[in-house]
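Example 3.2
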Amino acid sequence: MFGGTFDPLHLGHLAIALEVRHQLELDRMLLVVANDPWQKTVFNSVTPASIRFEMVEAAVAAANESIGSTVLEASDHEIRRGGETYTADTLATLATETDGAELFVVVGSDIAASLDTWERPDEVRELATTVVAERGGSAGGRPPEGWDHVVVAVPALEISSTDIRNRFRNGRPTEALVPHRVVEYVRSHGLYGSTR
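Structure, written as tokens:
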């Protein structure tokens, strides 16, 4: 699973999901949309989860069509559960639903060192192998001692959702950074201060 706020999802997110799935030969890659990403909503407002999920769903459908098979899945596990979003809860649900399948949780190297600050980190560590997505081959952070992990080099796409939101707000180009269907969705719904 690759969880995130995805506010909005961009090509960097897709590159990570596709590269990790390919390199680790995973059967499924879920992009799990956070319902209430508590580490972010404390400081900032976040687009409603249902809207963020619809954007992820549109991007995943387009990616799968382009590839010609279902390699990515949009997941609303955390939205359906409601409340604050905790990876430990999502992994526990997936462990039950997949009848003991081996689980992996994808994190960026920028946050890997902070995994012990997550809610119930011991459960996360026990339920899944952590995949550290390392951009552009430059060495980044690693999980704290005791975390079973693998490192996957992913393309270095310097894209952030904060920059994307600002680009929409300021009328700057987004087409080379965001899947086309997400750009259409944002503009048709007037999100992030964009013009329709």
